Every structure is written in C-alpha cells, then in structure tokens.
Amino acid sequence: MRSPWRESRRRRAAWFGLIFAVLLAHALFGLRVLSSVIGWNSAHEPRRIEITLTKQVMPTAPTPAAAAPPAPAPAPRPPRAMRVARASSAPVPASAPEESASQPTPESALSESHKLLASRALALAASAAEASRPASAASTEAAVAAAPTVAVGTVRLLAGSGVSAPVAGPSRPSFAWPPSTRLTYTLTGLYRNGPLYGKASVEWRREGTHYQVQFDIHVSPFFDQHMFSDGQITDDGLSPQHYDEAFEVPLVTPRVRKIEFTPDEVILANGTHATRMPQTQDGASQFVQFVWLFSTRPELLRPGNVIDIPLALNNNLRRWHYQVVGPETLRLAFGQMDAVHLKPILDGPRRPNEYPFEIWTAPTLQYLPVRILVPLDDKNFADLSLDALPMQAAAVPEDDAASQPMLR
Questions:
Q1: pLDDT of 89-117, one tens digit each?
Q2: For FRET with 188, which of 110, 146, 244, 375 sits at 20 to 30 Å CA-CA?
Q3: What is the DSSP-derived secondary structure letter of residue 264?
Q4: DSSP 98-158
Q5: What does the mean pLDDT of the chain come to?
Q6: Considering its fold, how many domains does the chain have in total?
Q7: pLDDT digits (tens, 9 = 90+) for 24-44
Q8: In this structure, are residues 312 and 261 in contact, taking their beta carbons and an 8 Å threshold?
Q9: Do the domain assignments include residue 4?
Q10: DSSP character string of 330-383
Q11: How many CB atoms within 10 Å of residue 163?
C-alpha cells in the first residue's frame, strides 16, 4: 500500500479528514459512556424505582363512579313584601289584654281593612314579579363561584351557556392506583417528507406513595427522546417534584432539560420561576393524571366537554385545554378497542418546542392511553399505537391496606 504522505495534497487532506472524523466519533462516544457510567450530569436525579412485571392487563368493563347524593338545597327565602304581607295577615290572639281593652270603632276598622287589602295586593304583585323574573347572569356566576372546586382542572360544557363550571370534588369515590405498568407502542408517521418508523413506551412505577412515569420514544436512526417525572401520590392525583427530558441524536451530546417543583413555585428549564397552580402536571405525568381523573369521574368523557389542566413545560406554565371529541373504535395490533378521543385546543399560535398530544383513552383498559398522536410540526407527525396488552406488576400487600384508601 502506498504511503498517504506520497499522495497528492488533495488526497492527503482527505486522509486527514477521515482520521479526524474517526477520532471525533470515538471522543463523543466516550463522553456518552462516561456520562452514563460515572454519573455526569446526574446531580440531584432521583433513584429509579425497580419493578418486575408479571401479568397482562386484560380488558374489563369499566366500573362507573358512584355519585354521592346531592346535599339538600336550603329552602328559598320568600320575598320581603311577602313576609310583610304574612306578618300583617297573622291572626291576633284574643287573649291580648291591651288589644281587648281598646276596641276599634267601625270607621277605623273599615280603614284598617282597606289598608290590609292594599298591602296584600302589593305583596301578591311583588311575588308574581319575582317569580316571573329570569335569573340574571350575575346570580348564575355567583352560584358557579359558590360550587366546590374540582380536584384536577375544570370542565366546561360547550353546548351549554358557555359558563365554565368547576366539577364537584368532595363526592369523588376512592381510587385504587394500579401497580407498576408498562405500555409499548408501535410508532409510524412522517418526518422530513419521509416515512417514520420506531417504537415507544410509557412506564408507570409506584412504590408506596412515591411514583415515577417514564415516556421513551425511539426513532431509528434519527433521534431518541426520554421524558421522566418523579413525585408523590396525593388525594388530588399526582404531585410532580422533578421532571427531566433528554433529546439525543447520533454522535451528539444529549440535550437535557430539567424542571423542579416546590410547594409554591415551579422552576422551569429556562430558569424562570412560575407560581405553581393546583394540580400542575408535567409532560410525562399528564398521561397518568388523566387515568386518575377519568377513573374517578367517567362522566367527564361526554363529547363536547373541555378539560383544563395546568401543564409545566420547559419554557412556560399555563393551562392546556383538551376537548372530548367522542368515542371511537381503534384497530390495534391485538384487536379492536373502544376509546375516547381527546384533542388539545390551542389558545393561539403554536409555540416552539411544544407538542400538543392527542390522546385516545380506553375505558375498558383502566383508562390507559392506547393511542397518542404527536404533531412534530405542520406537516410531520408521530403516531403511537399500542402494540400489545399492557404488562403489570403483581399487587403488593399494602395495596389492600385499609389505612391507604387512595392507594393500591
């Protein structure tokens, strides 16, 4: 073989370029290995919960949530004019000594009867006007404001009057959180005007009141995306404490973003401190939060309802609106499955690095998401379809403990 030093200048440059590219690839690969082995970029990362999946989740008929009997409404107070009329028409006791001592004359009795008739006529007219007067918008809003607040988000009826009414929370039945569960998806779609193929998984891990949700998307040979949520299970659903996501492309250091949650605020990936709203979720926990919400309130899945949920993303925290489109029958790899379609409603132009997921939740499969549509931009998308029945861990003894009504 002829030495490259004796080649032409152009060929020597090509040789040096090839050597540099090989060395760079090895250096980047070494950095990724060191990062995963010795823990670089892993400060303050929570310990991963270890799970063992032993059984398949079989479809079952959903158990409707029992609604608590409504509280008796207080009796309406009669109008003031009616109360005056009733007081004036009350019978006078015959044993009153002062009244028996001073009996009215016939002329005074006649004038008193005229006054009594006039007051009764005014009272009847006032009560008729009060009964025929429609309820004003102010009184309607006051009644809505006095209603109890929902544990997660609010629901609006598009077909109604347009008033956003919170869903009552105190009547919510107890909910048995499922054991650790893994869902796997086949990914198809369109990317850069070409077909997209890959796989994805959503993994729910639970250890007592400690939960983790991991959402992984693998599209070979383009990219890998990992989303991870860690937090606590509460009476109001999931309460995230830490969230991170990593976006990886071949031969490039992964781009990692983190979100931290405190009781009062959320520290976004761009460093912004935002006030934490009640029941705020992140990009991974929202899927399991919907499972809790629909399991405890299946009536929310009526077509036309709009469900609001606070969502913390890398650069902002705001309410997202999901409209219940309606039931659909999906053809999945293991057979047909009835699901309910949820579609996000954007309140303005789509913001950079925001992916408004469309979700299909299956009532017969513990309200798990059986299909997820991810619009990458105006033309490209990723469609995740459940490719097998979910796998689930065996129930642990604490699942049946009466001291934990919200946990199983």
A1: 444 444 444 444 444 444 444 455 555 55
A2: 244
A3: S
A4: HHHHSPPPHHHHHHHHHHHHHHHHHHHHHHHHHHHSPPPHHHHHHHHHHSPPPSS-EEEET
A5: 75
A6: 1
A7: 666 555 555 444 433 344 446
A8: yes
A9: no
A10: EEETTEEEEEEEEEEE-SSSPPTT----EEEEEGGGTTEEEEEEEE-SSS-EEE
A11: 12
φ/ψ bin of 193: left (φ > 0), alpha (ψ from -120 to 50), beta (otherwise)? left
Mean pLDDT, residues 131-156 taken together: 41
Structure tokens at 377: 């931009």
Residue-range definition of the domain harbouring residue 344 = 172-396
- Does residue 300 lie in a domain region? yes
CATH of the domain at 388: 2.50.20
Q: Are the C-beta atoms of residues 297 and 363 closer than 8 Å to each other? A: no
Residue 151 lies in a domain: no
Both tokens of residue 320? 């997202």
pTM over 0.70: no
Please state the rounded mean pLDDT for residues 145-161: 41
Is the distance from CB of 358 to CB of 321 less than 8 angstroms?
no
- Would 94 be classed as within a structural domain? no
* Residue 379: Cβ within 10 Å count: 10
In angstroms, the Cα distances linking 231 to 4, 225, 280 are 59, 20, 12
